[in-house]
């Protein structure tokens, strides 16, 4: 039968999610409900909810599970993972099996992500990884070979993120050398080095939408890189110097520095849609914070974790005021205290819901929400779920849904 991931990549059928609402019942059950139109049919989709259970566990890594990413194709769903055991591994979720392991890094692998650029431009399934060996590497899963190596950082590379524009052609990376690099995947060239942090750049993200109002004349005068995806995209970087910096990609200028965390920053994430002008962060100080890019101020701080917050995400398809319409108002965080917590951004009170990791996990290292299309091979569409994937300190991967 061969490796199912070697089949030509194709997109799953897309439907339009038109309305959604969030509800909290009896202070116990957290539900997310969506109404979706496909053609003339109306479907109600229940998504990630507090009644979710542990569905699957994958084991194989023998070091911290530092990073996970997911890719859904018509032929199945796949996870890539990067670990302190120096390997990048590929897992087939449908058959509950590891199908590939790449062993080219000579030190801890800190981050692993599927490359959208190769997927959409070359119909190849490629994983990108960064490690403490100072390199970023691209791996072809079908041919089981290394395609590219980016060298340029002086120390280990903690984090990588692909651009959500231009088909993922651009990649940013944060390093123990205190810098953030921007790379062109197509040419394998470094486009710019952002300097400003006084300590390790532990985490990076690229804005999903254009968020500033620079005019074309400003661009013509100040641009140093060239028009990448259109004027207005930014990079944010979180550092062990306890600050978050926001950089304009076109002008390469640092225009905001957020201060407030009392210890190393481990994770940063841009909001989307109505929350595009916000950044979420998690820190060694055990707090989760939400920041406003426009004002340069902290909006909210969430306390409840008792140890390092390694991962933060905006919880999907959750909207305000418990009614149809509005924008996402729930965030999620994973911690070394072995809990995943859901918070309402309108309040800094106790968490809406808490997932406790297995006793053997010894801490949450990374997490990701993934949309699951049910009955992909069936002509009868039956809806979708949101599953929560997380990686733990003991090297295991867990799926809740």
Automatic annotation (TrEMBL):
Any one cellular-component term (Gene Ontology): transferase complex
WD repeats: 58-101, 102-149, 150-193, 231-257, 258-301, 302-353
Key words, A-Z: Repeat, WD repeat
Pfam family, one: WD40
SUPFAM superfamilies, per the entry: WD40 repeat-like
PANTHER family: WD REPEAT DOMAIN 5B, WD40 REPEAT PROTEIN
Protein name per the record: WD-40 repeat protein
Originating organism: Reticulomyxa filosa
């Amino acid at each position: 039968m061969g490796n199912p991931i070697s089949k030509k990549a194709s997109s799953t059928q897309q439907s339009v999610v038109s309305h959604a609402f969030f509800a909290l019942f009896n202070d116990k059950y957290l539900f997310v409900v969506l109404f979706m139109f496909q053609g003339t049919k109306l479907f109600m989709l229940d998504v990630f909810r507090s009644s979710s259970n542990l569905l699957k566990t994958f084991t194989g890594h023998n070091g911290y599970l530092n990073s996970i990413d997911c890719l859904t194709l018509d032929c199945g769903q796949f996870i890539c993972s990067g670990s302190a055991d120096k390997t990048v591994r590929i897992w087939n979720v449908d058959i509950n099996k590891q199908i590939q392991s790449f062993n080219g890094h000579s030190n801890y692998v800190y981050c692993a992500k599927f490359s959208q650029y190769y997927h959409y431009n070359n119909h190849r399934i490629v994983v990108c990884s960064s490690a403490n060996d100072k390199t970023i590497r691209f791996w072809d899963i079908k041919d089981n070979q290394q395609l590219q190596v980016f060298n340029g950082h002086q120390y280990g590379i903690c984090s990588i993120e692909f651009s959500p524009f231009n088909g993922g052609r651009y990649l940013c990376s944060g390093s123990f050398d205190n810098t953030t690099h921007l790379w062109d995947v197509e040419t394998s060239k470094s486009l710019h080095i952002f300097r400003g942090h006084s300590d390790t750049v532990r985490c990076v993200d690229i804005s999903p939408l254009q968020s500033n109002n620079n005019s074309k004349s400003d661009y013509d005068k100040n641009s140093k890189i060239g028009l990448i995806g259109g004027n207005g995209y930014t990079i944010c970087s979180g550092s062990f110097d306890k600050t978050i910096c926001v950089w304009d990609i076109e002008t390469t200028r640092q225009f905001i520095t957020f201060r407030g965390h009392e210890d190393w920053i481990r994770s940063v994430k841009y909001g989307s849609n109505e929350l595009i002008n916000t950044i979420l962060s998690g820190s060694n100080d055990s707090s989760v914070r939400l920041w406003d890019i426009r004002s340069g101020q902290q909006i909210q701080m969430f306390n409840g974790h008792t140890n390092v917050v390694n991962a933060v995400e905006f919880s999907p398809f959750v909207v305000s005021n418990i009614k149809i319409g509005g924008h996402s108002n729930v965030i999620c965080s994973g911690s070394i205290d072995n809990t995943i917590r859901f918070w309402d951004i309108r309040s800094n009170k106790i968490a809406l819901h808490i997932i406790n990791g297995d006793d053997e996990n010894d801490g949450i290292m990374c997490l990701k929400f993934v949309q699951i299309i049910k009955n992909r091979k069936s002509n009868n569409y039956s809806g979708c779920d949101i599953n929560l994937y997380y990686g733990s300190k003991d090297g295991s991967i867990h799926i809740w849904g």
